[in-house]
Design goal:
The protein is an alpha+beta fold. The chain has a domain of 42 residues. 31% of the residues lie in helices and 19% in strands. It has one helix and two strands. The protein has a two-stranded antiparallel sheet. A hairpin with a 2-residue loop joins β1 and β2. The longest helix is centred in the N-terminal third of the chain and has 21 residues. The radius of gyration is 20 Å and the shape is elongated.
Length: 68
Amino acid sequence: MRKKITSLVLALFFTVGLSGVSLAAKCKGEVVKNEGGELVIKLKDECKAKAGDSVKIKVKSAAKVEGC
């Protein structure tokens, strides 16, 4: 009985975790301005994010090549 309840609870946590990831919008763009803690980003395509939404930004820097 305890094993069944534990497996059910774990399955529910896994399902809820995946649904949160699927709700996230993926937007790509380029930073145009950085003034006093405010970023202005020009988007490459349409994005579902609206003004006032909280976002998490991952910075992807260009690869640096060193050579002779």
